[in-house]
């Protein structure tokens, strides 16, 4: 039994492997993971907001294509979308970023997240009270002015915690970009850990990567939950005041 426990410890929690891989995970993998997640999230936010406006439109000519876009990107496996964008576009002659695999990876994750963020934004935009919209129109505002000055400010504010929570999922989703074959200087946390695990026939580097992911995502998860509770309390106080 003792030998079995020792073997498990050497396979998953070898101190030597941890010491060898952790510096590279922190100095190379961590910055690349965060940068990739931030760029992908920016793409997702802008595209998602645009699609959400289309989903909230009364015009079927605008609403239907946006709904198809969301259904496709939310319905496809993430790994397939990453392959289609990261490898398919260059093979089809659409070399938008030349040989920059990192940019294709950010675009792929951004497109995936735009489908989910579009639904988050749509819920926020549609949560704005109908009375406020009608009051704005009665004051002479156009639909675009009502959207810009009344619906968007309130709707976006209400979905900030869910959007932050989605960013946590983006961080975890960056682990899939290793499929595209990043340069050594572009590798994120999982790519570095996987290479070390294969080269040393030991899973400790992957456990080290898991610990690093947890160090990123667990505190953020608790912060988002606290933020949502605080906003819920603020909303109830506002309603009581009204």
Task: Describe the structure in brief.
The chain is mostly helical and 242 residues long. 81% of the residues lie in helices and 0% in strands.
Give a quick set of tags describing it.
242 residues, disordered C terminus, mainly alpha, MetI-like fold, single chain
Report what the structure shows:
By secondary structure, this protein is mainly α. It has a single domain (2-241), classed as MetI-like fold. It has ten helices and no strands.
What coarse outline follows from CA principal-axis ratios? elongated
CATH topology: MetI-like fold
What are the low-pLDDT stretches, counting only 5+ consecutive residues below 50? 237-242
- Describe the sheet with the most strands: none
The CA-CA distance between the termini, in Å, is 66 Å
Enumerate how many helices there are, as a single number. 10
- Radius of gyration of CA atoms, rounded to a whole number: 22 Å
CATH architecture identity: Orthogonal Bundle
CATH classification, class level: Mainly Alpha
Count of DSSP strands = 0
Number of structurally distinct domains? 1
What portion of the residues fall into strands of 2 or more residues?
under 5%
What proportion of the residues is helical, as a percent range? over 70%
Q: Which structural class do you get from the secondary structure elements?
A: mainly alpha
The helix-strand sequence is: HHHHHHHHHH
Mean pLDDT, rounded to whole units?
A: 86
In the CATH hierarchy, what is the superfamily? MetI-like
């Amino acid at each position: 039994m003792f030998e079995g426990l020792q073997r498990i410890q050497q396979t998953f929690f070898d101190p030597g492997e941890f010491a060898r891989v952790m510096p590279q995970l922190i100095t190379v993998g961590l910055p690349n993971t965060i940068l990739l997640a931030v760029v992908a999230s920016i793409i997702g936010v802008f595209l998602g907001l645009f699609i959400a406006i289309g989903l909230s439109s009364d015009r079927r000519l605008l609403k239907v294509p946006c709904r198809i876009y969301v259904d496709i990107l939310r319905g496809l496996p993430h790994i397939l979308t990453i392959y289609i964008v990261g490898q398919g576009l260059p093979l089809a002659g659409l070399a938008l970023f030349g040989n920059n695999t990192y940019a294709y990876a950010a675009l792929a994750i951004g497109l995936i997240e735009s489908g989910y963020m579009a639904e988050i934004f749509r819920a926020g935009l549609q949560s704005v009270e109908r009375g406020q919209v009608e009051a704005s129109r009665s004051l002479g505002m156009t639909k675009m002015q009502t959207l810009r000055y009344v619906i968007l400010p309130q709707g976006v504010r209400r979905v900030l915690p869910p959007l932050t929570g989605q960013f946590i999922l983006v961080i975890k989703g960056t682990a899939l970009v290793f499929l595209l074959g990043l340069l050594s200087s572009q590798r994120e946390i999982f790519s570095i850990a996987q290479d070390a695990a294969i080269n040393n026939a030991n899973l400790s580097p992957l456990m080290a990567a898991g610990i690093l992911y947890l160090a990123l995502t667990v505190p953020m998860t608790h912060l988002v939950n606290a933020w949502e509770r605080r906003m819920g309390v603020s909303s109830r106080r506002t309603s009581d005041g009204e």
